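Lab meeting notes turned into a lecture example. A postdoc, R.K., suggested we walk through two folding results consecutively so the class can see how the record format repeats. The first protein's sequence and structure tokens come next.
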Amino acid sequence: MTMTVSTTPIATDELIAIKGVSRVFPKANGDDLRVLEDVDLTIRSGEIVGLLGRSGSGKSTLLRIIAGLSSPSSGDALYRGKPISGPPKGLAMVFQSFALFPWLTVLQNVELGLEALGVDADERRSRALAAIDLIGLDGFENAYPKELSGGMRQRVGFARALVVHPEIMLMDEPFSALDVLTAETLRTDIIDLWVEGRLPMQSVLIVTHNIEEAVLMCDRILVFSSNPGRIASEIKVELPHPRNRLDPTFRKLVDSIYAHMTRRAEPKTTAETGIPGTGVGMVLNPVSTNEMAGLLEALAAEPFHGRADLPILADRLQMEADELFHLAETLQLIRFANLSEGDLLLTDAGKTFTGLGTDDRKKLFAQHLLTYVPIIELIRSVLDERPSHTAPSVRFRQQLEDYMSEDYADETLKAVVAWARYAELFAFDENADMFSLENPE
């Protein structure tokens, strides 16, 4: 059974136009949190476009605006020249989670979109079977989601999106919930079908934080910066399909994107501390101290000897780029490592740390936290000054929320608690929601 392609891509046909789009959300203190700022992009027929950026850079927010699930605070979002107000009929979406109805069979799940469009039963069945066959699930029409592997369930998600013959397929990190091998197989199958012209859509827009995935799949990559989300650069990928990850040109492009995404903007001096690019209002990622120590040890050992190319390090440690970025930037924050043009380098303090025993590691870590992480220095100072040597976390949470969203404040405090416990700087009672000094002098 084959699936009929409803349209022929035309490279000059503009489908989506995003013009000066910004998106803000209100914060608890009455200020606005700006997630997207002045974003411009176009999507034309015949191309796969990737939105590549760190977690929290606004990629998924932009995708929701394009899908008609959210509205811009300012600017214009257009589909075929008309404002997007509600989900456009020519778009279909594949989500990170499989989002299948467990009480429906594969065939019934795939038919749902057609049923909502009022397609009659015979055509629904015919088109659903064709989509199931195309995506590699022939023979599983009557299976229920619980009987399928994760990769097969995501194939059902693709079939459900394809069956409505969309002009644009929107993908929100569709492979991130799958194991490495399953994701690679599904990714390759989708690209093969696209290259062969067997997919019933004109364009694909994919959100990802996986650099190699973007280079492997996309014709254009829009790299997002964060806080607020902006398009920092546009990269054309002119490699023919199928693309070889080991090709020197492929590796060079991946390296250049790593370098771009780890390049720091010009620092701004914080009035509170005078420290360039830092301050009490800095968002912290709650990476574990064990992972920090493990990365430092890996960096110090063979074959890196204190300096590693990030793509090679990510591959060797089997880490996603976003996860590695969080770790590397935390080590840079506390001056145990430096990021430079896509490389991670141990500092003298980082080298010293790897050669110390457990207690001495904790002492060095504590010194660097107090020196380079202002929120931790602030909490410790307040605890030292108060006769009770205690302070409620809400006192610091409210201060953080003057600078960031509630979610980011929660993440920052999680990092503070975990790092301070390891360094034995102060304790935190979750039930009382209270910081304290365990052994006040």
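The second example is placed directly after the first for contrast:
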Amino acid sequence: MTWSTDSIIPLLAKATREDLAILKVHSHPNGFPQFSTLDDKSDGELFDSVFGWTDSTFPHASAIMLPDEDGTMFGRAILPDGTFQQLDSILVPGDNLHFWTANDIGKLPSFTQRHAQLFGLGTTRKLREMAVAVVGCSGTGSPVIEQLARLGVGRFVLVDPDKVEEKNLNRILNSTHEDAVLGRLKVEVMSRAITEMGFGTEVEIIPEDLATPEAVKKIAECDVIFGCMDGVEGRHRLNRLASFYVLPYFDLGVRLDADGEGGINGAFGVVNYIRPDGTTLNDRGLYTLEQLKSAGLLRTNPKAYREQVEAGYIRGVAVDRPAVISINMQIASTAVNEFLARLHPYRSDDNKNFAMASTSFFHGFTRRDAEESPSGMFFNNIGKGDVYPLLEMPLLSDEGIT
């Protein structure tokens, strides 16, 4: 068996220039479910040349795709000293979420049995092996966490810098008046609730803003992101992160417009599924670049922000909107079900037609929109992974910005 290496020359040049890794993928047409001795020889020779060309100090990788219905993949890292190390998992985030792991977690806990009846044993095992990041642990974040934990997700990374306040108690699941009085962190309350379920779920809490290197690095280690924030900057940053680290991103938004007399003029919710190579939240009109600039100015220079709003140069960034737990929970459930439908495709229609689900609670309907042609805003960032500064944003350098 031979194959031409001509196609790898321009890739090696790019990998050297941009400090990227090389991934080799091939198939075993007979379905042989492991690396062969021929693969060992081929990978050894190829990647010896790759390391010599790129002079990289990090691993490259080799993967095999089998010709079964699921296109099962497994792989290994090739280390600088030429040794092989098995990959723990492989995730391919397209319209469907393809996820394969190398480890057998053994018998599933009994609380997952009824989930397996609907989604299948394989999907239930995947949930147990997955790590999920939830950014924002309040109105929509807390019901997302509750559902995913009871579905059997094995590990959480929870990100939120805020403390529980009395005004939050109407919408944060598992929060108490004592939490508000003592000013407990929202991530601590969520972690406590997951632990008390007794499922053996791993939880890592990040009581930091998303605009910190620690938060970005921990989220990047997960398999799926749920963004449960109102802020324009945070949503833009998560969209950017999903591109750099090739992660699926579910963005949740709820908008209740107050009428100024104790009522509301509108109630809307939306769930966006963002592929790393698809349309962005900006493409879909969830925010404009002007709003992103305004949010940045509010964060860095509140005085200048107020002056420009008063002068009419920029529009104000909305803060402190009404919140209703029943609406938040419905949107959270929509997001979790979108995740499940992509991990275990069961709908009669293709998942590419469900890129955005928007609900008008006033008009009583939910609209589904398909993925459209992307602008390519983040195309140059896809798969870059760790760079300095992180996400190529000065704010995320070790020193940060003032």
